[in-house]
Amino acid sequence: MPTIYDLKPKFQALLRPVCAALARVGVTANQVTIAAFLLSLAHGAAIAATAGADWVLWVLPIVLFIRMAMNAIDGMLAREFGQKSNLGAILNELTDVLSDVALYLPFALIAGMPPVLVVMVVLFAVIAEMTGVVGIQIGASRRYDGPFGKSDRAFFFGALALLLIFFEPGWWSTTLIAFAAALGLATIVNRARMALKEAGKGADHANT
């Protein structure tokens, strides 16, 4: 299924000059990864502390864009500038999940939002990323299949934040969150299915 993640190569091409400049001054991939997580943690704390004040919601799409750029940059630094490491791989996966939890779980504290559904969306996001990683364990690649991957979640919550500035939460926000939960569940199933399919093809080639 197509997702916003499919635009990643073009986004990386735009960021490559910035990435090269950071590498020249000694910035490492792991530093960028940790910085992106700390940014997410700080803004998630602001959402929780203010119960979704307008100014915090205004800033969220900007934070999500910066986080997405930093995630692309740390990957390029690792791959294109010889900075790959086992620690970096662990940090990348863990901080992605923790950043999602930090940024999206506080939406449950916004008055009028359905807390159970928000928790479900975040839980399904964590399971979806875990499913993607488990693909490697069974002989497939790290799966990023949609329809509700990391970039899609960022777009959804960024747009939701802007809508909440202008409209009181109600049936419409509950409907959107329920839809996001359904997409999250579909993503888990799709990643598991595609990982099994890929691993099966690998086994077939090995037996021929």
Automatic annotation (TrEMBL):
Gene3D superfamilies in alphabetical order: 1.20.120.1760
GO biological process, one term: phospholipid biosynthetic process
Protein name as catalogued: CDP-alcohol phosphatidyltransferase family protein
UniProt GO molecular function: phosphotransferase activity, for other substituted phosphate groups
Source organism (scientific name): Hyphococcus flavus
GO CC term, one of those recorded: membrane
Keywords, alphabetical: Membrane, Transmembrane, Transmembrane helix
Coiled-coil stretches: none
Membrane-spanning parts: 21-39, 45-66, 87-110, 116-139, 151-167
